[in-house]
Amino acid sequence: MKYQRNKMVLIIVGIVAILIALGLGFVFGVRSILTANTQTSLQKISEQGSNAVRAAIVGNLDALSAIAQQNGLTQSTAEQMRILSDEARRKNFVRVAYVDRSGRAVTNDGKTMMIGEREYFQKALAGHANISGELYDLFDSKSKIIAYAVPVIRNREIVGVLVATTPDKEELNIMDNIAVDSDYSIYILSHNGTVVSNRSGQDRFSNFFQYIGESSQPEISRMKGDFLSRQPGRGVCAINGVDKLIGYSGIQGTDGWMFAVMVEENKIMAPGNQILIMSGILFGLLILEFVAASVGFFKFKKSSYEASMRRKEDISYYTYTDPLTNLPNRKGVEKNISEWIRLCRAESKNGAAIFLDIDNFQSVNNTFGNDIGDSFLASAAARLASVEGENTLVGRIGGDEFTLLISNVNTPEELESCAKTILHLFEEPFLIHGNVIQLTCSVGAILFHYREIIENDRFDEIINRGEFVLHEAKSTSKGSYALFNDEFGITIDRQHQMQRELKLSIHNGEFCCYFQPQYDYEKRAIVGFESLARWNSAKFGMVSPVTFIAMAENTGFIKELGRSVVDRTFAFAQGVQGRGLRVSFNTSPVELLQADYVDYVLERFRYYGLTPGSVAIEVTESTLIESFDGVIKKLEILSGHGISVYLDDFGTGFSSLTYLKNLPIHSVKIDKSFIDEVVTDRVGRDIVDMIVRLAKRLNLEVIAEGVETQAQIDCIYSCGCRMIQGYFISPPVPWEKAVALLDGVHK
After folding, report:
1. How far is the C-alpha of 583 from the C-alpha of 615, rounded, in Å?
2. Does the model's pTM come out above 0.70?
3. 401 vs 217, 397, 435, 442, CA distance in Å?
């Protein structure tokens, strides 16, 4: 007895020691987590700050672009100085200058200088509004400035550049909209750590890396590497013996600037330290309570073990069993298949997999409620379980989808008999809580050899093929059956082969874009093109876009495919640039919802040197329905950079007026289904007329798609629509023929 008591004491002491160690680990672990969370929060704040600074820079560039549009800038020097002086005072710029193409600048205070060699001037002269890095003022070599530069465009030609400067140590007028706690310090730093701007009242220093010189050299080196590679990051630095946490992010559109947020670690961790102290006290009390409860714990050890075993059994049950029907679920069928085959192999080598789906089951839930629907499924399961045969495995593998594995089925005739047997089970109505319910089911059936499952592990393939043939049965006629045959196998194999070939189409040079002209009937001239993806497979020939685009979306290849369309479209737009044309390309919901899609489009837009208004992105209403808030922001960004937005297939979706009101749309495209009936159907013509009138009220361009006859053109033109696209003008054609059409279309 004494030995048992001493043993228990030793166990309790050992557990208490472990708890104390865990407590200490908890304290230090929580502190590490709080530090990491704070650093993560700082990095997020820096990302938000960098976006705000970027928005402010864009705002200043937009303001400068508005000034650049004033006609007086290209007139007399006196008129230039008047405009520049007014705008410098109104926009809080230190100096505003008009620079001609030779680089000669006239400032708002009458000074002249040559800035032709300045990088920001060269970029603006090439058509790119931009902001410089840190510079020395040409009129005061001790003063550092930041320059904004935008092109001055007249009659689509750049005749000069408008430049505005701000001092680099007074927030640059771009940190006004950034609000952080008073304990936080925020800075804009160059890629080498030089301070570009900081909030008044904060610590003053010239170079960030010198300022944190007390920090460890590996930490400083890591942050320097982040700055040079423009990567966001976070870290800990020491300043005057005080540890500070920092987060930083790159500012897009600048010469490697970083937005940094810094806070003293002790200030931010003070509330957390108080919580940790209280946690320590509570943890000590917990240990005392544990000591008091330990003896009772050992007494209930056996009962706890038994309860644990019951819980495991419950978990196993719900993992492999459908509780509504008490049949195996999909995992349960897969788990039981090996044992089922072991029992069946004694009587035969082959079996049948029957897949069935209850037709229009949702109508039961909608009409009688989910409780009646559940009872119906339970009754259906009971009928399926009554199928004759010693070795029949029945499972519920989906909402209203079941499977039966039947042994000793060897011929297509026997398989067909099994399918008909299942259909007959649903001929008699179900009586559910006084409600008579009559539903049919659709059946797909497939023969298989047991060896396929045991030796070749092909059960998943059998399920996929069975569900495929079930889908074929439902699409043919509900309440019918379909048997898997070689033709179905060829179809499935062809789909798999086509998927593999599609992924190689770009690499093999099989993928290209055709271009269909958009024709101004009033001007009798082509004014644009729509870029359309085409796949001319060496193995399958010319594959329909309806087929390969859906396949690309299902397999994830749509990202690579869509970006190839963007690249080829922009290359074509570059080739016809200067002819007053606009080339549009289509995007799918899957593409537009990609996080980096907008960045890629804008990078390609800049790479090809395209002018604003030369390309357009076409979106459908189904794209907008996917994620309206996210999509509208992306389209606003693209529109803000000069990429027009077309609403394709207009009138065929939902809430069209909402999209017209809230999206940055430039044009709407009337769907072909309306154009087909515009001549023969008065209602169809009225719809076209209404769409055109509505678009004109909203200052939107209208393009009629699918125009195939002169009569259709006459009708839509009488409604006020002069832009047409369709086979009457030209089918989609390759690049060379599209260019040839520009001088050859006369309708």
Report:
1. 5
2. no
3. 64, 6, 22, 10
